[in-house]
Design brief:
Blueprint (H helix, E strand, L loop, with lengths): L1 H5 L13 H9 L3 H16 L6
C-alpha cells in the first residue's frame, strides 16, 4: 500500500523533434542558445559575476 501512495504518475508527451536541438526547443520552448543566455543573466544578477561557457 505504501508503494501506491508514493508512486509518481507519469504524464507522457510525444516529442516529435528529429534533432536534439528540435527536441530541446519543443520541451522547453526556447533554443539552447537562448537558454544559455538566460542562465548567464540569472547568474550575473544573483552573484554579480560573469562567466564564459
Amino acid at each position: 500500500m505504501t508503494r501506491d501512495k508514493n508512486a509518481k504518475k507519469m504524464i507522457g508527451k510525444v516529442i516529435h523533434g528529429l534533432t536534439p536541438e528540435e527536441r530541446f526547443k519543443e520541451v522547453r520552448g526556447m533554443s539552447i542558445e537562448e537558454r544559455h543566455a538566460k542562465l548567464k543573466e540569472e547568474f550575473k544578477a544573483k552573484t554579480g559575476m560573469i562567466y564564459e561557457l
